[in-house]
Write a structure and sequence with these properties.
Elements lengths: L3 H14 L6 E3 L6 H7 L4 E7 L2 E6 L3 E6 L5 E6 L23 E2 L2 E2 L11 E3 L33 E4 L3 E6 L3 E5 L1 H9 L10 H12 L6 H4 L11 H10 L13 H21 L10 H9 L23 E5 L2 E5 L6
Antiparallel strand pairs: 1-9, 2-3, 3-4, 4-11, 5-8, 5-10, 6-7, 9-10, 12-13
Helix pairs in contact: 1-7, 4-7
Pfam families: Fapy_DNA_glyco, H2TH, zf-FPG_IleRS
Family: Belongs to the FPG family.
Organism: Microbacterium hatanonis
Length: 332
């Protein structure tokens, strides 16, 4: 599932390439025809991400709410404003105006496609070609415009220069301003949206009175926004916290450390486009980690492999229908 860093990156992409422009909206798949008709011809006026949800505002107080869910992604094509230091000749690009996955001036591309601007959301390889803008120092690929629809596109938003195709979202709906406010009110604090100090207090207050296991609370978007399966496993390992401990029994200092770690990891994720959870890597290890998820995490997706700290086999189990990875020794 795309986690909070991906959605914030998507919002930044829309802010740079769609906001302030009129869009032609359509639903090639046919499942959002009425909504697309309402958006068609309107100007996008603002965008915001909260946790795993994005809200795109159009003129006359019309809002589009998108929750990517397990399999959703936005595919971008056309002239895309990018930082030239993180553009690559084959059209796969890092995020706009951010440091991106770069070491010694060279882009590091993730084989899973997580660092590709052409598709942000559920990890997948980039679809089609991207015609880059002038900011890419002359790198350009010719392609049909507008690009042909490929696969099941729920919503296509097309400006004169940029195309954004939405595939496989859990939610794609039109909302009023009051409905947007109500949706956001149900979400827990997001470090990139809410005051960080106030967010910490909200998070600590909720967790410390809940009998629910901390491993489940971190995935509850009403408790804290944006954390998914990867960040959940990694944050608990970094805190050396047993995922089955009831929230009310987790020491307050540990709960506060979890929030502060989320603040830090979310910022890294937005900056690099990767869920990087290992610290103090030398350049060679950092390059390997940026190129491969297997070298990027402490416990996630490492079931049966030795813990990087103690050597104990990493355990995987089901928790509320999702896979939970943890070290039974380090997190005892």
């Amino acid at each position: 599932m795309p986690e909070g860093h991906s959605v914030h990156r998507i919002a930044r992409q829309f802010d740079r390439n769609v906001v302030g422009r009129r869009v032609a909206a359509s639903s090639p798949q046919g499942r959002f025809v009425d909504g697309a008709a309402l958006l068609d011809g309107r100007e996008a006026t603002s965008v915001r991400a909260v946790g795993k949800q994005m809200f795109l505002e159009f003129d006359e107080d019309v809002w589009l709410r998108v929750h990517l869910g397990m399999y959703g992604a936005w595919d971008f094509a056309g002239d895309i404003v990018v930082d030239p230091t993180i553009a690559s000749a084959n059209g796969r690009m890092g995020q706009t105006n951010q440091r991106g996955t770069v070491l010694d001036g060279e882009p590091i591309l993730d084989a899973a496609g997580e660092n590709s601007l052409s598709s942000i959301g559920a990890p997948r390889r980039a679809r089609g070609r991207v015609r880059m803008s002038e900011q890419t120092r002359g790198l350009e690929e010719e392609t049909e415009w507008p690009p042909p629809v490929v696969g099941q596109v729920r919503l296509r938003l097309l400006t004169e220069l940029t195309c954004a195709d939405l595939r496989g979202p859990t939610a794609c709906q039109i909302q009023t301003p009051d409905e947007v406010a109500a949706t956001i009110a149900k979400l827990g604090p997001d470090p990139l949206v809410d005051d960080v100090v106030e967010g910490e207090e909200r998070f600590v207050s909720v967790v410390r009175r809940k009998p629910t296991a901390i491993g489940l609370l971190l995935m509850d978007q009403g408790v804290v926004s944006g954390i998914g399966n990867v960040y959940r496993a990694e944050m608990l390992f970094r805190a050396r916290q047993n995922p089955h401990t009831p929230g009310r029994d987790v020491p307050e200092e540990v709960v506060r450390d979890l929030w502060r770690d989320w603040v830090r990891l979310l910022a890294i994720g937005v900056e690099t486009g990767q869920m990087m959870t290992m610290d103090d890597l030398d350049p060679e290890a950092y390059r390997a980690a940026m190129a491969s998820r297997d070298d990027r995490h402490w416990v996630y997706h490492r079931a049966g492999l030795p813990c990087r700290v103690c050597g104990t086999s990493i355990v995987v189990e089901e928790a509320a229908g999702r896979k939970l990875y943890w070290c039974p020794r380090c997190q005892a």
